[in-house]
Amino acid sequence: MNNHILRCITCKKEFTPKPGLYYCVDCGYIMGTLEVIYDYETIKDNSKVKQKNFEKKASMYQFDFLLPTESKCKFDEYVGGTPLYKFDLLGIKDVLVKYDGSNPSSSYKDRASSVAINRAIDEGNNTLFCASTGNAASSLAMLNAHTDMKTYIFVPATIPIGKRTQLEISGAQVMAVEGTYDEVYDLSLELGLKKGWYCRHAAINPYLLEGKKTGAFEIVIQNDFTVPDYVLVGVGDGTVISSLYKGFWEFKKIGLTDKIPRIIGVQAEGIPAIKAVFEKGKPYTPHVIIGETVADSIAVGNPRDVIKACTYIEACNGFFISITDEEILDAISELGKETGLFAEPAGAVAFGGLKKLIYEEKITDSDKVCLVITGNGLKDVNAVKDMIHTESLTVDEVVKRLEG
Amino acid sequence: MNNHILRCITCKKEFTPKPGLYYCVDCGYIMGTLEVIYDYETIKDNSKVKQKNFEKKASMYQFDFLLPTESKCKFDEYVGGTPLYKFDLLGIKDVLVKYDGSNPSSSYKDRASSVAINRAIDEGNNTLFCASTGNAASSLAMLNAHTDMKTYIFVPATIPIGKRTQLEISGAQVMAVEGTYDEVYDLSLELGLKKGWYCRHAAINPYLLEGKKTGAFEIVIQNDFTVPDYVLVGVGDGTVISSLYKGFWEFKKIGLTDKIPRIIGVQAEGIPAIKAVFEKGKPYTPHVIIGETVADSIAVGNPRDVIKACTYIEACNGFFISITDEEILDAISELGKETGLFAEPAGAVAFGGLKKLIYEEKITDSDKVCLVITGNGLKDVNAVKDMIHTESLTVDEVVKRLEG
Predict the structure, then answer these.
(1) In this structure, what are the phi and psi dihedrals at residue B252, rounded to the nearest 5 degrees?
(2) Are A115 and A140 in contact (CB under 8 A)?
(3) Which of B74, B376, B387 shows the shortest C-beta gap to A378?
(4) Residue finishing a domain among B181, B207, B233
(5) Are residues B119 and B244 in the same domain?
(6) Contact by Cβ (8 Å): B113, B144
(7) Secondary structure of residue B402 in the 3-state scheme
């Protein structure tokens, strides 16, 4: 485990880590405001930390010098190291596409769950809990199934069948609650913290961003240390954008790169909660939006990582945009046809966002762009079922069609 | 491309490869009987072919010295190199679990599709076709989406929604035919060969086994060149077992290992077509079985790779078993709870088969066992939907349950 402190991004108060400490005692627990800060000067001098020492396909634990865990789990070796493809898309050459659908549970969330499980072991906890729109929950349930620790999962009863199936298959204790994600979140936090269970809420527990930031590290090393100009990613709670910023920032901090990309958070027009906060300006004050979207993973009306997300996006000169559900579904289809990659709705928004920004001439063909696809489309096939032709043909009809 | 000939496993006739040559002119095209045979002595002397030169996570193209392709596609770099986990299962320590659900299209079939696409380019063909119970089709459609080549897919209209969605998303020409897999297969072969399209039928086109065999290579290198005693895998057409045998055989042939494992083909009791042929004995004569199973990927009544599959299983002292649909569904659930891995029905049969063989004392805790999980469970969540608790709780009920 690496030496680190926790520092509040709002009041700058510093804390020595201890089990159960997830939030700033002054700023409260409803929002994630703590950052994990390492001794970057020492890390910079570590002779292992050289560009040539990284592998394009190694697991996220090749970055252990910037991770806050000591224990190891069976899945660690296969979390991260996901593909970075290059496709010519929408008139731009070599668009980078980071595809995290090939993680063990088929989403980006495995990066955080792996850290959560290892931290729980480090701290001697025997139960983890999580509220989730689906991916974080199924990720935790699956990665924790083989350990001796228990998993409590709180989800809205309406999550897609793929995600619900993963939960049940893994043997987790599933609380499918009649309520929105935001209500489920509050309930889980109240109960889980009271019980002393290990908190796998990436928007509160600062350690989980440490897992997620490895996606940024991988984009850099897999692109031969050339940092893209823009990184686009879907935004719900805000944790993925926060983590990407932290990753790019740390690699620059320790001298492995000289640049942080402009990060663009893409939200669903039906529920653009963080975008609203960001555009209202400082101080970034959370407020709740009621709304909905086909992209269930980012259907978040009360984003808990809003302070970090807005602060970081500002720091990298990034911004937020939103696209409609129709544009999201079109994005899944168009991305599939152009690349073969099947993204869940919240993953395809990055592509939809790029399309919009090209149309608005905010991104041009000379820009270096990276899209982050956070989950496998198989997670939520119902979302696109209306796009599927259900026509079936008789043998004679096929013959006629192909030979006619 | 490596020098090779094609040799008929039945009549031993040898052929010089040429475009469109998929089957033995004497033995006919309905069954796959050709084998791709390299110059193994030359390969053995290749200084690159040493145990130490392999990487545990590299793509299947690290084995290019035993592959029949020259062209390259974007996905090549990320096909293969899938996880090999070790779990203590059913009383056996360190059971190897090869999990191919993390390939680009989430199944084992990508290994064959990648070779098919590259061979089609090598041969100057501009269209590929495939009949499939689902995985081979979605694999080909996705991996070929970004190329300039066309994809024609023939599937039974009843395939699971996950697989159908992948097909439609990728923009392939989908012929969803009212008929069984076997009828669809015959139709596609007749039309596709007449048109001169490149044939992505792993049971006929011998080159596709060359892609699939890399799974065996990876099991060996990821287990530090210790070959397991038993390898269990689900069987439909028979191509995966054929390919595994070929892989283990070739590594022994070129001196990288000294053993071939006993391969156990696990079939669904509802439609155990290859098992019936094998147990009837030589000469292995195809005959058609009518039946069904929840494991759609192995619901094959007229297996086209039966001759190779039976010949190879005999050669390695392997055998076939079958399990019921109930045992298959139990296997998905138990594998999930023990490991966290989510397998599609046809993937989980390997685990179900192991359970049966342990019960029958044919495999004991001193045996070294490997299970091959060929597809991600997200491909077919409907298969397990009856196992899912659909109970939902109010907030008050959750509080009562956890605090009571």
Answers:
(1) -70, -45
(2) no
(3) B376
(4) B207
(5) no
(6) yes
(7) helix
- Type of residue numbered B134: G
Mean pLDDT of B253-278: 97
> CA A90 to CA B147: how far, in whole Å?
15
What is the predicted pLDDT for the residue at B148?
Answer: 94
Q: Do A165 and B388 touch (CB under 8 A)?
A: yes
What's the half-sphere exposure (Cβ side, CA atoms, 13 Å) at B278? Answer: 27
> Which residue from A144, A393, A403 is facing B176, i.e. has the nearest CB?
A393
Residue B340 and residue A86: Cβ atoms within 8 Å?
A: no
Domain around A314: 80-104+211-387
pLDDT digits (tens, 9 = 90+) for B77-91: 999 999 999 999 999
Question: B70 is written with which tokens?
Answer: 């020259």
Q: Give the count of domains, chain A.
A: 1
pLDDT at B151 over 70: yes
Residue A47 has pLDDT above 90, yes or no: no
Give the residue from A144, A163, A333, A381 with the most B CB atoms within 10 Å of its CB, the best one to mutate: A381
Mean per-residue pLDDT of chain B: 93
Which pLDDT band, with edges at 50, 70 and 90, does A369 fall under?
Answer: very high
Mean pLDDT (chain A) is 93
From the CA of B14, how many Å to the nearest CA of chain A?
34
Could A106 and B77 be called an inter-chain contact, meaning their C-beta atoms sit closer than 8 Å?
no
Residues of chain B in contact with residue A146, where contact means CB-CB under 8 angstroms, are 87, 338-340
Nearest residue in A to B172, CA atom: A337
Cβ pair B104:A83 closer than 8 A: yes
